[in-house]
């Protein structure tokens, strides 16, 4: 039978992680636990759990240090109800599409990130936002780009004695004359309560002349980890941000994707769907 710990401070949590569990195995960290416990229905739960849900000040999303901090306890509902600039519109759209209201009220953005599923709805958005992951341990604190945090299916660079305390989203800047917006589109077998077949998150910054000053496009559920379309982004820079912008997209821009065949769709279908979603996302941002 596993143990269950619920520390009230980050320091206590890091102390427990440094100590490990009774048998030298790493503790399983949960916040909302919306993925952990359902995956264990019908079998004994023998892991040693560290529940960070009681740690104070782990839910308030706030502007800080030229950007925004989303702490590890912030739920999907917190993302939706917090007043944030249009830069976060895509993340808010993802938050409204994750499960039902019960899941949104309990599940956390950081938990979705750490779970590292290829179909995690939060990951393409965090890639497009160029977010940084803040990781703490009793040894030190470090920041890792989201692109380098997830290394594979259910795999991250977090060490056993480390705790992800939140993510930091930098302000894309560009001055008062620029406008940064984002969007998120997903394809599933139905509108809600569904795992994505393909999804796209995009961020665009327009300059004072109405041209693309910066753009980030990330595709999820079409590779082991979500990927940005770097070659497409490079071609879009400097173009007029007007309807028809998505005509730039070509098949080679999607070449880095590696979708699989499964019960939700074939690899070929996923690849074509990703292209359609990218076009719709770009047209939505310039509309």
Task: Summarize the structure in words.
With 287 residues, the chain is an alpha+beta fold. The protein folds into two domains: 4-115 and 131-170, 2-Layer Sandwich (Uridine Diphospho-n-acetylenolpyruvylglucosamine Reductase, domain 3), CATH 3.30.465; 179-286, 2-Layer Sandwich (Enolase-like, domain 1). Helix content is 26%, strand content 24%. It has nine helices and 14 strands. It has helices at residues 10-19, 76-81, 89-97, 101-106, 109-115, 122-128, 146-149, 230-236, 267-286; strands at 4-5, 28-30, 49-51, 62-64, 67-71, 132-136, 141-145, 150-152, 155-156, 163-170, 179-187, 198-206, 212-220, 227-228. The protein has a five-stranded antiparallel sheet. The longest helix has 20 residues, at 267-286.
Task: Please name the defining characteristics of this protein.
26% helix, Uridine Diphospho-n-acetylenolpyruvylglucosamine Reductase, domain 3, alpha+beta, 2 domains, 287 residues, 4-stranded antiparallel beta sheet, Enolase-like, domain 1
